[in-house]
Amino acid sequence: MKQVIFQPQSGIARGFTQMAALMAATLGPQRGVIWNAVGTGKPEALTDSGIIARRVTELSGAAENVGAMILRGAATEMHARYLDGAALTAALAVALLEDAYRLLAAGVNPMSLRGGIEAGIAAAVGTITAAAQSVKGQERLAHIVLTATDDAELAEILGEMFDLLGKHGAYVVDEYAAPILDREYVDGGRWSARPAARELMPPAGADLVLEHPLIFVCDDKLERFDQVQSALQSVFQAPDKTPLLIIAREITGEALQALSLNHVRGRLTGAAALLLGSGEPLRADLEDISLLVGGQVAASERGTAPQHFRADWFGRARQVIVKRDSLTIIGGAGDKRQMQRRASDLRAQLKQIKTPDEPWERLRLRIARLSGGMGVLKIGALTFAERDERKDRAKKAVRILEAALESGVVPGGGIAYLNAIPAAGLAKCGDADHDAGVDLVVRALRAPFVQIVANTGHDAPQVALAEVLRLGSDVGFDARSGAFVSMWNAGILDSTAILTTALQTAGSAAIMALTTDVVIVEK
User: Fold this and answer.
1) SS in 3 state form for 385-399?
2) pLDDT class for 274, splitting at 50, 70, 90?
């Protein structure tokens, strides 16, 4: 049965505020801990706002639950995109909403108020974006990670990796059972794959390393001898017993037997790797590999059936490593300009995807492979819980650094928002109701700084706010030391993209809460 609640604003505001208080408590390096009771067992400690948004799923009261749901949706969207920024979004959103209901009760036109909020946010976003600077150097990159994760060892390694590979590199986190934190660099690409047959691999589960192999890429199922006959004959005619690697969807039957027998008898060093996946994603991977190694994809539907193979279809690479779960191609011989054009096309597609999901991740990984660099972060620990926690921190840091390299950085700790206050104030147009919305944005821009200071246990966050406003545009509050410092010199920096997206997302959530007149829920 449905329950209809008219004029639910007060309940929505309570739920919104309660949820925001939980998430905002985790903002900044001196974040609080939220204990969540789970059944009759030991409560779980929640220190990440994104996890809080997923765990706290119900409040008492139907309207309150709707308010919490609105903010939860905004925070989850932010966390899905950057693995960060949910607490920031909550602090901004609740500050926008704080006086808004009072204004509506006083007779302010809600549409004009909404227009003022949107205009103030747009002006602030423009100012923050214009102030962004590119971030360079291992030390500065490492400090961004340290600010986000408070993990010095992880910060040092990721700072090095991003300094070497830059924004077009691919960053993969690998799990290990033993305690380890290290990195590995791959000059090329890595794909999820498996060997086609055990007899083609070295004994005792060792990796197969092929030096300067000929590479045959096929988008068909190879099962007959005539489908591999021409490729094998071309390899037999090559000098110095050149290794052969076949990369295909599947290889079975006579085709696999022919490759295996020639390998076992010593006529060639042969290997076959089967890419994991299906459909268009698998086809795209095969095309990318062909481009990377400078070969031609054999595919019957394109008129290049494998039984008609020619030697100029072979691709080449400096080295190939076949493992039980991956294929790594290093130093592919493909045309660099063609790879750059493909990567540019993929970047254009990437920009069309608003919320990161599986297609977004795949596009990002394809771009990195074609751009020529991969960094593998190796993480292990004595316990699964410890490893998973560090892995989550690492993934969050990687996403933050990617955003920072893409959009630039600005002074952190809420200072960029304070610097945008004058520009937001200029969005006023003389209409009292519209300008009231602009004033809401101006007040909300102070909220992240005040929340960060409050989370350190500082007695007077408003006094600290007055001090940084007096000291100038670069001076902020170092939440770790409790000192007022130059944010640039101290390396306390925020990604421009995360700050602007959090402000826009907070504005959307607050406006949704303000303009909800009726709630329909299960009774």
Assistant:
1) HHHHHHHHHHHHHHH
2) very high
* Count of residues making up the chain: 523
CA nearest to 91, candidates 454, 436, 474: 454
- Count Cβ atoms below 10 Å from residue 485 Cβ, excluding itself: 17
Residue 116 CA, distance from chain mean position: 32
Tokens of 174: 């690998």
Residue 16 above 70 pLDDT? yes
Distance of CA 122 to the CA centre of its chain: 24
Element (H, E) at 486: strand 483-486
For residue 14 the two structure tokens come to 């309570």
d(CA 507, CA 188): 42
Percent of the chain residues topping a pLDDT of 70:
91
Buried b (16+ CB within 10 A) or exposed e, 233-251: ebbeeeeeebbbbbbbbbb
Say how far apart CA 335 and CA 87 lie, in whole Å.
Answer: 45
Instruction: Work out the pLDDT band at 374, boundaries 50, 70, 90.
Output: confident
> Which strand (E) or helix (H) includes residue 149?
helix 138-149
pLDDT greater at residue 368 or residue 273: 273
Q: How far apart are the first and last CA of the chain?
A: 6
Residue 101 pLDDT: 82
How far is CA 487 from each of CA 41, 144, 175, 513, rounded to the nearest angstrom?
43, 12, 35, 34
Q: Tell me which DSSP letter residue 352 carries.
A: H
Pairwise CA distance, residues 45 & 464, whole Å: 29
Cβ partners under 8 Å of residue 26, min gap 6: 32, 34, 46, 47, 48, 49, 52, 87, 455
**Cβ atoms 84, 400 nearer than 8 A:** yes
Task: Return the pLDDT at 95.
Answer: 92
pLDDT at position 459 is 82
User: pLDDT (tens digit, 9 = 90+) per residue, 483-499?
Assistant: 999 999 988 999 999 99
Tell me the residue type at 164: L
How many other CB atoms sit within 10 Å of the CB of residue 193? 21
**Tokens 């990002």 found at:** 364
Residue 179 has pLDDT above 70, yes or no: yes
| Whole-number Å distance between alpha carbons of 165 and 161 | 6
Cβ within 8 Å of residue 5, ≥6 positions away: 11, 62, 63, 518, 519, 520, 521
Which own/partner pairs from 293-296 qualify as long-range (CB within 8 Å, at least 24 positions apart)? 293/215, 293/217, 293/317, 293/329, 293/332, 293/333, 293/334, 294/332, 294/333, 294/334, 294/335, 295/215, 295/216, 295/217, 295/334, 296/217
